[in-house]
Amino acid sequence: MTAKKELARAAAEIAKTPPHKLHPPLFRVFLLVAATGDVPRVKRVLGWMYGARTPAPEKVASALSTQAIDGFCAAAGLGDVTRGLPYFGPPRGEVPSLAARVAANAAMIHERVTCDAFDHAPPTDRWRKTSPKERAHWIERWRWVQCLAREGAEREAFAQLDAYLEALGPRDPLVGSGDELALAMELAHRSGADALARPWLEKHARRFVEERFLLETALCFPAVAARIAKGALRDASGLSPADVDAALGSIDAALGETKATTKASAKIPKIQKRRVSCSYSQVHLEPAALSKAEKAQVYFQKRGDAKAGMSLFETMVAIATPSETDYVDVEVVIAPAAKPETSLAGVAQAVAFPIVVRGALVLRSVAGGDEEPLVVPAGSYDVLARFFPKKAPRASAEAGLRIFKLALVFHAKGALKAPRTLELEA
Questions:
Q1: Continuous H helices in 151-211
Q2: Under a CB-based contact definition with an 8 Å cutoff, are residues 406 and 277 in contact?
Q3: The whole model's pTM is what?
Q4: What CATH class is the domain 267-423?
Q5: 3-class DSSP state for residue 185?
């Protein structure tokens, strides 16, 4: 199937896919467009994958899907779009930065592609005495390259791999399932060679497009991802800007219908009001149904949380309240298109934080809270939280406790440059 037909097929599939299952087909579109090196169009696709028009993804599209997106975003200067989600693996606490994740992914992929999957015996150069017509010749030759790379002889490994790829035709099978190409481009960078000038790149470039997992693997190497983002595979991608625009237009229309359907089924109130007690001076905003990983997360355990006045995770947050707070009357406004109003007049305390919404949210405290879900469309937001003093009822006042209105306004992602601490009581 040509890339043009595959892209059109993915667009048609998206039009028929329920919102909570959109991440895998959108990821396939991401890979196809990423191969063209067209950063603005890739950014448009990522805006759908991680924006307010689709639910926040809960399951990975493939074993390397999030890592591949992170690699492209870092190389293309798009910032931390995924924030490490969705995540395949054991529960984790603080999510590493994009740079840290990309470095860890590169190390993991380098270890995988240099791992000998054929034999436990140490490789030798016996391949030199075998016929290239035999598969065993290529297996032993690839094992030899892997051994050199593992042992740090990267220049020699690249020289061997350079000759290896040049000797193979564009349709000859690769015994390493294409890992040879990803490693070759990475070793070219490490060895100071120009991978784009290698004759084998043009000959084998189609493999990156036809073998999706190979492209995912390649995007996990920062130097290779940078080459791809600059158009190294553009000619091999088989897609013109017109082809991409036609498919993206169809997807945009399909997501528009999905968004309209979602609005009709869950009308967003102008203001949503809740009352939450403030045990231990915290208010929690978190998913109504916590995942296993979310249940394992503990607020205010990271250095700097108390000073910041908030404890952040990707999908949940604990907001520190002013001291001696009995309870807060919360007013929630969903205004992603509105210009942020950040006035601190009359404010006792204020913070801005990012949050990814995948479903119903609730407001809680350490001791529980109002379990009535808030209506918030799935997506990524910057939230402004401001505490305004209120007159305390007699019982609270006699106990030396205070009451506050907590105004929570959900703005578009990036609108507040969150996280930011705007005002804290002395």
A1: 154-167, 179-190, 199-210
A2: no
A3: 0.64
A4: mainly beta
A5: helix
The per-residue pLDDT for 262 is 43
Angstrom distance (rounded) from CA 134 to CA 421: 65
User: pLDDT band at residue 265, thresholds of 50, 70 and 90?
Assistant: very low
Interatomic CA distance for residues 112 and 114, integer angstroms: 5
Token pair belonging to 170 = 């564009």
**Pairing of β 402-412 and β 325-334:** parallel
Task: Label residue 337 by pLDDT band (50, 70, 90).
Answer: confident
Q: Which of 59, 47, 69, 51 is closest to 20 using CA atoms? A: 59
Contact status, residue 212 vs residue 237, Cβ threshold 8 Å: no
Q: Is 252 exposed, middle or buried (0-12, 13-18, 19+ CB in 10 A)?
A: middle
Domain residue spans of the chain:
3-252, 267-423
Contact 279, 365 (CB under 8 A): yes
Residue 367 has pLDDT above 70, yes or no: no
* Measured distance CA(275)–CA(328) in Å, rounded: 6
Q: Which of 20, 329, 4 is nearest to 12 (CA)?
A: 4
What is the rounded CA–CA span in Å between residue 380 and residue 374?
A: 15
What average pLDDT does the segment 70-94 reach? 83
User: SS3 of 69, please?
Assistant: helix
- Do residues 68 and 215 make contact, with C-beta atoms less than 8 angstroms apart? yes
**How far apart are alpha carbons 67 and 69 in whole angstroms?**
5
In the chain, the amino acid numbered 425 is: E
**In whole angstroms, how far apart are CA 266 and each of 21, 249, 269, 331?**
19, 26, 9, 18
Q: Which residue has the higher pLDDT, 123 or 320?
A: 320
pLDDT at 295 over 70: yes
The SS3 assignment for 263 reads helix
